[in-house]
Amino acid sequence: MKNDQNEKYPIVEMIGITKQFPGVLANDTVDLELFSGEVLALLGENGAGKSTLMNILAGLYRADKGKILIKGEEAEINSPKDAMKYGIGMVHQNFKLVPTMSVAENVVLGLDSENFVLDLQKVSSRIKEISNHYNLKVDPGSIIWQMSVGEQQRVEILKLIYRGAEVLILDEPTAVLTPQESGELNRIVKQMTGEGKSAIFITHKMDEVMEFSDWVRVLQKGKLVSVVRTQDTSPKELSRMMVGRDVLFRVEKKKANPGEVVLELENVKAMNDKGLEALKGISFSLRRGEILGIAGVAGNGQRELTEVITGLHKVTEGRVIIGGKDMTNKSPLEVIKSGVSHIPSDRVAMGIVGDMSVANNLAMKEYRKAPLTQHGILNPGRILEMAKKMISSFMISTPAPYTSVKFLSGGNIQKTILAREIGACSTLLVAAYPARGLDVGATESVRKEMIAERDGGKGVLLVSEDLEELMSVSDRIAVMNEGRIMGIVDSAEADIESLGLMMAGVPMEKGK
Amino acid sequence: MRLVFEKRNSVSKKAIVLVPVVSFLVSLILTGILLIIFKTNPFITYSSMFVGAFGSWINFTETLVKAIPLMLTGIGVGLAFRLRFWNIGAEGQLVFGGVAATWVALFWSNFLPPFLVLPTAILMGIIAGALWAGIPAFLKVYLKVDETLVSLMLNYVAILTAQGLYYGAWIDPKGMGFPGTKLFPKSAWLPRFSGRAHVGLFIAILLGLVMWVVLNRTKWGFEVKMSGHNPRAARVMGVDIGKTIITAILVSGAFSGMAGAFEVTAISHRLQQGLAIGYGYTAIIVAWMAQLNPIASLFVAVLMAGLLVGGDQVQMMMGLPAAMGIVLQGMILFPMLAGSLFTDYRLKIITKSTKEEAA
Amino acid sequence: MIALLASILAITLRAGTSLIYATIGEIYTERSGILNLGLEGMMLMGAVSAFATVYYTGSLLLALLVAMLTGVVLSSIHAFLSITMRANQVVSGLSITLFGTGFASFLGQRLGPESNGHYLIGLIGNKFTPVKIPFLSNLPVLGALFNQDILTYIVYLIIPAAWFFMYKTRAGLNLRAVGESPQTADAMGINVSKVRYIYTILGGTLVALGGAHLSLSYAPGWTDNITGGRGWIVIALVIFSMWNPSRAIWGALLFGGINAIQFRLQATGTTISAPLLNMLPYIVTIVVLVLMTWIETMNKKVGAPEALAVPYMRGEK
């Protein structure tokens, strides 16, 4: 691999890295090699272990097994400070900046080498030097919270250069950037590598890989599955490597029998929490007895999409019509009352109340209605009765119905949510990543329930990153990219490569 | 070797009961050590405190007198804390309730039929307490203003308002300059059943039971629990968090307002110095020790009141400072706060070898 | 008129000194992300321990040291409960206040000489007296600034020093980072717990000094509740100064000034409602708090440390 690079030498080598988290093998004997003056892309789906691997290199986690060589010598990296000593710095997805402080203050924060009485003047002029050299356009006096996300990212890079970083790790750097800012970032990184520094990109965007990197390493479920030179590969090939070819199992399902339209979005626009446009005009319709899959890399507007439908997020333009009624910007309760159920993406934070019992959690949709409540008075007997039924029919494994739900495993928490939401659903089920992180058995039962709901005459909106899942479970697949729908295809006719291209931002060819 | 906290797999039921009991014992021991340092026999002190508070029916009625406002404020504060709304304004809400009840007792009694004076006075006290608590609640829900600091500041506004009234506009003209209003008409007196102990006790106990039922057996109580434990999930499930917070805090303030109304209509029969003597702050200990359970709050309130009365008694009998009771109250919370971690976490000792094993 | 102004200024400064010590102390504590509502108790304990020491030893310096030590002990309890045990800071602070109030009162009736029935109340001890600074103390009106006791002169130095330390030094930068964004501070290699311990204890020391000023200078001697709620006023002053030590002076002067004006009014027998005047600072504080929060929602940041009263644990979101 490295023989044709005479003047380039491996600056970082990670050998046999293994990292176990409770219940997940995040990294399984992963190797990595980074050459000076080059950019390595680390490609993989969510949960493939990319961030874990990089957090190990940056000193935030410790590997259970394996070793790290820096410039050929074994290195002991126990903290970000240690990593910095070896010239390794990481730009995290959540920037490590203090919002109320100036650029200069953030740059010197935690640096023991500075004088006790800070000479911010000196720091500022050094920052200006670096800024001018790389054309970063960062003013050392600016306060972080007043800067755009792109500027903040440049401050992070500047901070690392100031501290003498030779290796830059960038965790999904373009996820928060505009296309212009991404181009700018590319230019900065090229300039740095031109000067002998190197960079590692964590990403799951194919176009970015093609544009930025020299080498690609693809991770899948914690394992390194391939290493290729960027010039020798193509987005098609990469997307196949990333998703994996092996179909785990096909779910048995009958042909769909779509009925009336149950959900219709008309040119829906919405902002994300940072005030950037997250949905840029989404239109589609979903019928009863049909599963519409939403494919796409996380962070392309899927969360906002599920939340505008369920009333949790404000629509700025356009209309959301559920069961023929205009439900645009109605409260979550009104949406629930129209028969919509929601399996949220972050199940522990949004789907359950961990300190309450399994039985109570199962009742959290139905508690408003008789027979669970009469004249505002709850009937615990009825709640327990309903809970017991749900626990047995969904095979939720819990010590008792009154056990706090937070003590259940991830799969059983998801079954609890599923039981509750399916029980309360009468028109539409919005499911975000319902099988994420579950084992094979739980995954299968979740998928079967989705299909059972469809066959029961409800509309199902299934948001997932797992293309296999979408192709086997849903009837049609819509692909989202940067707040837009790139195309909707019949899952029978869909193939991973064309879906992958749409996920990367290439609109569907007309008439295909 | 080093100590780490490891999250338990289930909430320790034993710890929930044991922590308050052990905390109380630890505070007795720590305070006992202090007493020994000051050459006082802790056993004699504690036993005379106990006798002073619970030893005779007369003494016990005095304990009940102090327990009533602690029960009410404790239940109210506990409700707010369930929503993680750090209402430390019970003191002000109590005082404002007292002021409003005084207003009715002094100025409405001529217009109202006598049998309506007392209920109206108490009702106004409840409303005033609720509204006073409503200020931080509205500011929190609509403007996201920190409720801890606002409710704390409002204590002073309420206390100073009361002062302004009984030193100024409402001062008894025949009181020879003594700061206080004139005596309420009899129609505004809350009946006492023994000594100074008044029927407010039964109302407080009843409300404690009702509150437990409301929290555990009603739709609203269910929503309070959901919103308190996980507001994000509650919102996904269709609960209007803002509305839940505001209604709960109004109720929380109503409890304290009622306590204030009881104090003026049953104990002092006028508004005067001595209404704001810290019940609202002690309420926080009551709520915390009772683990926010309204029924447990009733018992803890009696215990705390017993410490106060017992403190007064040792002053009279042994010449020991009455502040003993308050010292004990303050002491209870330290082990309690340290101990509450043990209901969710267990302490694990990590030695070099276990570390290697883990690696 | 000039005499009146001068006397108001003199009283204001005397009344304000203890407030400024405590305010700066609490600003440092809160800047690290720890809310300490135990001030009232710590000030009382500072006051009683200082007075008892000076009564028996006559040494003012020793009295200050003992008060500081008291502050260290009490704030260490709060630090341990809220940092190591991750306890609720509101409740922990309140129990410090409760305990401190009770124990100070207890000590006031136990530490005295047997001849006084073990009471400290009513005894006279050594005290700080005003030290005139030549020439400066003769200035019209402003002369009052230079006819104060040593503790007030130290305040003149502490305010700029506290400001300089917080905004111009590496340690101050670390402190602010820990209170604003412990995650960031941790990632940048700053020991969050250590910083929080240091400034909670440092803050408690200053708060206890503020209490000592009351019993050694402002109202020499010991009476129950000598603080008269100053510990709570300080919580308001911290907000009022928007967590900036250099602004601590304005709030303290406002509260001290209101004290002073009242003093004058009482002397002249005016019947303007004193409670109304007293209430003003609290209402102003609430208004400041509301405005600050409102401005913050409009364009983000002006006020409280972001992580105030939030326990930090690595790896928890």
Characterize the structure shown.
The complex is a heterotrimer of chains A (512), B (359) and C (317). With 512 residues, chain A is an alpha/beta fold. Chain A contains 17 helices and 22 strands. The longest helix of chain A has 16 residues. Chain A is globular. The two termini of chain A are 39 Å apart. Chain B is mainly alpha-helical and 359 residues long. Chain B has a domain of 238 residues. In chain B, the strands form 2 sheets. In chain B, strands 1-4 form a two-stranded antiparallel ribbon. Chain C has 317 residues and is mainly α. Chain C has a single domain, classed as ABC transporter involved in vitamin B12 uptake, BtuC (Orthogonal Bundle). In chain C, strands 1-2 form a two-stranded antiparallel sheet. The longest helix of chain C has 30 residues. Chain C starts with a helix and ends in an 18-residue tail after the last helix. The mean pLDDT of chain C is 87. Chains in contact: A-B, A-C, B-C. At the B-C interface, α6, α11 and α13 of B face α3, α4, α9 and α11 of C.
Contiguous runs where pLDDT drops below 50 for at least 5 residues of chain A: 1-5
The 3D shape of chain A can be described as globular
**Compute the gyration radius of chain A: what is it?**
25 Å
Quantity of strands of chain B, as a count: 4
Structure, briefly:
The complex is a heterotrimer of chains A (512), B (359) and C (317). Chain A contains 17 helices and 22 strands. Chain A is α/β, with parallel strands linked by helices.
Topology:
The complex is a heterotrimer of chains A (512), B (359) and C (317).
Chain A: E1 10-21, E2 24-35, E3 39-43, H1 50-57, E4 65-70, E5 73-75, H2 80-85, E6 88-91, H3 103-108, H4 120-134, H5 149-162, E7 167-171, H6 179-194, E8 198-203, H7 206-212, E9 215-220, E10 223-229, H8 235-243, E11 261-271, E12 277-287, E13 290-295, H9 302-309, E14 317-322, E15 325-326, H10 332-337, E16 340-343, H11 347-351, H12 358-362, E17 373-374, E18 377-378, H13 380-393, H14 410-424, E19 428-432, H15 440-455, E20 459-463, H16 467-473, E21 476-481, E22 484-490, H17 496-503
Parallel strand pairs in A: 3-8, 3-9, 6-7, 7-8, 13-20, 13-21, 16-19, 19-20
Antiparallel strand pairs in A: 1-2, 1-4, 4-5, 9-10, 11-12, 11-14, 14-15, 17-18, 21-22
Helix pairs in contact in A: 8-17, 14-15
Chain B: E1 2-7, H1 13-37, H2 42-54, H3 57-82, H4 90-107, H5 114-143, H6 147-169, E2 192-194, E3 197-198, H7 200-217, H8 219-229, H9 231-236, H10 241-268, H11 279-289, H12 294-318, H13 324-344, E4 345-350, H14 352-358
Antiparallel strand pairs in B: 1-4, 2-3
Chain C: H1 2-31, H2 39-57, H3 60-84, H4 89-108, E1 131-132, E2 147-148, H5 150-168, H6 170-180, H7 182-187, H8 192-218, H9 230-240, H10 248-268, H11 274-299
Antiparallel strand pairs in C: 1-2
Helix pairs in contact in C: 1-5, 1-8, 1-9, 1-10, 2-3, 2-4, 2-8, 2-9, 3-4, 3-8, 5-6, 6-8, 9-10, 9-11, 10-11
